[in-house]
Amino acid sequence: MREVDLGCGKALLIKESGEFHAVGHKCPHYGAPLVKGVLSKGRVRCPWHGACFNIGTGDIEDFPGLDSLPRFQVKIEKEKVYIRASKQALQTQRRTKVMAKCISLSNYNLSSTNVLIIGAGKGGTWWDHCVCPLRGRDAGRGCLCSMDSHPEQITLRPKDFFCTYDIEVLTEMQVAAVDVKTSDKHLKDQEKLCKGKEMENVFNIRTPEDANRVVKLATSKNVVIVGASFLGMEVAAYLAERAHSVSLVELEHVPFKKFFGERVGRAVMKMFENNRVKFYMQTEVSELREQEGKLKEVVLKSGKVLRADVCVVGIGKALEFLLMNNKKVNVPHWQMAHMHGRIAALNMLAHGTEISTVPYLWTAMFGKSIRYAGHGEGFDDVVIQGDLDELKFVAFYTKSDEVVAVASMNYDPIVSKVAEVLAAGRTIRKRDVE
What we know:
Belongs to the FAD-dependent oxidoreductase family. By secondary structure, the chain is α+β, with helices and mostly antiparallel strands. It is built from 10 helices and 29 strands.
C-alpha cells in the first residue's frame, strides 16, 4: 500500500494479487491514515478503530463508521499507474451510498410493510443504511424512535439526511410496550417518566444532557465515581483536570481486572494516580448522605467518608447482547452496535445472515489509547510484550493454548493485525506470542 499525492488530494494505492486499486486514504470514521492499517484478502482495516473497507469497491464491511471510501479509476500504461479522481472525492475522502426512499407519511397505505426502530443510536442508524437500499421503491414507513434529544452537533446524521429519505425521527419518546400479535407500539413522552425525587447531583450518564450537567457541576468540586470500568474511568480521566478532587470506588483491587487483567489494570491505575485520581479499592458505597436534597458525602463500607459535591454511578450493564457459541455475551461498544444494526436489518428483510465479526473496541484516557480486539471473557493467562511501566505494550489473552483477545497501548497496528487473523478464522497459539 502507498499513499500518493494527486495534487488536490491524496489516494491510497493498493496492489494485491497483481491488481491495482485506488481508494480514499483516510478512514471516514476518525481520519486515520489507512496506509498504516492492515491489508488482507481484498480489504484494508483501519489501524485505530478496526473499520474495514473493500479495496475494490470502497464499501465499508466492518465498523465503526457510516460512510464508505471513494473509489478511483486506475489505468496501467507503459508500466506507469494512472489514477483518475474527482476533486470533490479527494477533498471529502468519504462516500455516502445512495439509498431508496421510504414511503412518506403523506403517501402511506395500510398494505405497506412498516418498520419501527427503537433507539436512534449506531445500531438504529445502520438499519436505515441496510434497509433502504434493499427494500426497493415499495418500501413502507421507516421510523426511528429515541428517548434522547441530542444536540445537533453530535447527531450521527444531519436532519436533512433523514428528510431526504423520508425517514421519520421521533425524539424524547420511549416505547412502553410492544404487542407482538398486533404489532402495535405504545409510546410515552419522556417527561411523563420523570417521577419521584432524586438528589440532583447524583448521576447515571446515559445521555449528552447528563454528561453536560456533570461537567458543569463538577468543575472545581469534589467528585466521587462508583465503578472503575470503562464509564467510570473515562469520566475520571476527563474530570481530573477540571474537578478539585476525583475519587474512584471499586469492588476489585485493580481497575479493569476482569477485562484487561491485573497487570494491565495496575499499569492503568498508576497512570491515573499520577494524574491526581484517588482510588478506594475492594470496598463499596453503603450510604449517600444528603443535605437539603443535595449529596454531601459518600460513606463507604470500609467506614471511610468522602466529601462529594457530585457522584457518578458507573456500574451495571446496558443489556446489549449477542450470541457467541449459543451463549449470551455482553459487548456494549460502538463497533458491535454497528454490526447489530446491519445484521438485524438484513434478517428483517429475509436476507438470512449470521453475525460474523471480531469485537473491536477502544478507550482513551489522558491522551493514551487502549485498543482491544476479540472476546477474552474467562481468559486464564496474559502474555505481555513491551513495557507496562512505559505504557507501550501489547497483551495477548489466552485460554489454554489459544489467543482469544489482544489489547495494546502505543503499539499500533498490532490489534488490527490480530483482528484480521481472527476474522479469517485462523488460530493464534500461545507459543506464537510468548
